[in-house]
Design a protein that fits this description.
Elements lengths: L1 H21 L4 H20 L14 H24 L2 H9 L3 H9 L7 H17 L11 H27 L4 H29 L7 H25 L4 H24 L5 H18 L2
Helix pairs in contact: 1-3, 1-9, 1-10, 2-3, 2-8, 2-9, 3-4, 3-7, 3-8, 4-7, 4-10, 5-7, 6-11, 10-11
Length: about 290
């Protein structure tokens, strides 16, 4: 279970770093560098670059390009959400997005509909509302503090659904899955770099600072590690057990980390929302 523990640690670290990144004016620089680091790490661990020339002809190439663009957009929104709405809220919005592929599987992929999974979806939506609820002392939640987690929720759900679709229709081996992920990271980094070049052309004063590179590397290592270690775990254990434990672990560790490092406070309703989120994950992935 050491691989699973490392995956949970990496995923929780990502959210904590994103809170720091979201408060910086050059946050997008850091996210772009992060994806370039992920792509380089993936290539180094694969030890094979010959497949890159053949990637354009793969039947999942168009989907990988779409997801690569969505990756970097949602990652940037996650950084803003972690900063404005909080790490715990963002973590739950991200992890409860699993109700989207579950719901789509019922409607379009013919998976068995059960009352327990329907209950899990309802509880997940309730958990999302409660975890974003401010107490009377804190005041009313600003529009961005609602909208950012909801964008994370919807975007992450689309990403999860698309990856599940790719796994079911295009990817048959763990090596092919690694190729697919490296391609995603590469596309995200490429389009991010193009956006930075356009910003530089429009404003000659625009630059990438040393701290941007440092934070980008610090974010990129756990970002790739979260997926790499999860894949290593899935090679040894059944996914029906690993995914709920992984998601629950990330929610709990992120909330604890936010409390420890950023002094985030959670109301009674927020804590109830976290408890319901954990219950919904169990209902949707195990029962």
């Amino acid at each position: 279970m050491i691989w699973l523990a490392l995956s949970i640690l990496c995923s929780s670290t990502i959210l904590l770093i994103l809170k720091k990144v979201g408060a910086q004016k050059n946050g997008f620089n850091i996210i772009v560098i992060n994806y370039l680091v992920c792509a380089i790490l993936g290539l180094c661990l694969l030890g094979d670059v010959a497949w890159i020339t053949q990637s354009v002809s793969q039947n999942y190439f168009e989907l990988a390009v779409f997801l690569g663009c969505l990756f970097i957009l949602i990652f940037f929104v996650m950084s803003q959400s972690a900063d404005k709405a909080g790490v715990a809220v963002t973590a739950i919005a991200n992890k409860l997005s699993l109700i989207i592929p579950v719901g789509i599987a019922f409607v379009f992929w013919g998976e068995a509909f059960t009352l327990i999974k329907m209950l899990g979806i309802v509880i997940a939506l309730l958990a999302l509302v409660l975890v974003m609820k401010k107490d009377k002392v804190s005041g009313k939640l600003k529009l961005e503090e609602y909208s950012l987690p909801m964008i994370v929720f919807l975007g992450s759900g689309i990403i999860d659904t698309s990856i599940k679709y790719a796994q079911a229709n295009y990817i048959s081996t763990s090596i092919a899955y690694n190729h697919f992920l490296v391609l995603l990271f590469g596309v995200a980094g490429f389009f991010g770099a193009m956006a930075l070049i356009v910003k530089y052309i429009k404003s000659k004063k625009y630059s990438i600072e040393r701290d941007d590179i440092i934070w980008g590397v610090m974010l990129g290592i756990p970002n790739y590690g979260s997926i790499y270690f999860l894949i290593k775990t899935l090679e040894q254990f059944d996914s029906s057990v690993i995914f709920p434990v992984n998601n629950i672990g990330i929610v709990v560790m992120s909330a604890l980390g936010a409390k420890l490092f950023f002094k985030e406070t959670l109301s009674t309703l927020n804590l109830l929302g976290i408890a319901l989120a954990l219950l919904s994950i169990l209902l949707l992935t195990i029962l």
